[in-house]
Structure prediction request, 217 residues.
Amino acid sequence: MRLAELSRATEVPPATIKWYLREGLLPKGEPTARNQAQYDDVHVRRLRLIRALVDIGGLTTQEARAILTVVDDPDASIDEVVGAAHGALARVPDTDIDPAALTQVDRFLASRGWTVTPDSPARVELAGIVRAMAQLSPGQDPSDAALVAGLAPYADAIDQLAAAEVAELPHDVPRDVLVEQVVLGTVLAERLIGSLRRLAQESAFLSRYVAPSDTDS
Prediction:
């Protein structure tokens, strides 16, 4: 298919496709003439993956490229693919991590029996969150174990969810398909969980603080 057909098939504007090509996110097509190329279903699938990462996942072009580089590496393990996705999703603080907060996070992880790598972006991100929680809580500091103890209900739910997600990964599909599913399952699930939580929270607040007549349309 030509670029215009690829655009119609994916609902991605031609200018955006050309930009993805220039940025190296989308593989080049098979040249057929000067400034012309043919594209196929591989490009359709890649474009949909890119759009899912950027439009729905909220990743930057640089973050999406980091993931796709690992996706395209045939020697990369599934753990490395997941690590790339986690790295793109994590919001690591620009400031130095408070050692006390990191210690509390490590103790919490150990109490859960969770095994993570020392350079796990989520580990550092959680330490930054604990520090921010301490700063906003009068009389507490990052060394207060009560800060992370309050995370237990969240961890209980996430523990079951993560185990189910890993258990449901297919074993009888080509590697490229499996890798894409792992990436999408990691990135999109992050947004899915946040979206569902906001909806449930909105409903709970409306039920508790707003009279039924105030929400009637």
In short: The two ends are 48 Å apart (CA to CA). DSSP finds eleven helices and two strands in the chain. The domain at 1-56 is CATH 1.10.1660.10 (Multidrug-efflux Transporter Regulator; Chain: A; Domain 2). The first strand starts at residue 30 and ends at 33.
